[in-house]
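Q: Hi! Curious about what RADIALIS-like protein looks like structurally. Here's the sequence.
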Amino acid sequence: VYDKETPDRWSNVAKAVGGGKTAEEVKRHYEKLVHDIMY
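A: Let's find out. The predicted structure is below.
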């Protein structure tokens, strides 16, 4: 788990997830999931 304050957080998450996703793709997917659970 990477805290919000972790440097290169999304790059680290993308590496952990695998599948060739970029940091930006992983962040965008995360934001969509957060939106889904809020509404």
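A: A fun detail: The CA atoms of residues 28 and 34 lie 10 Å apart.
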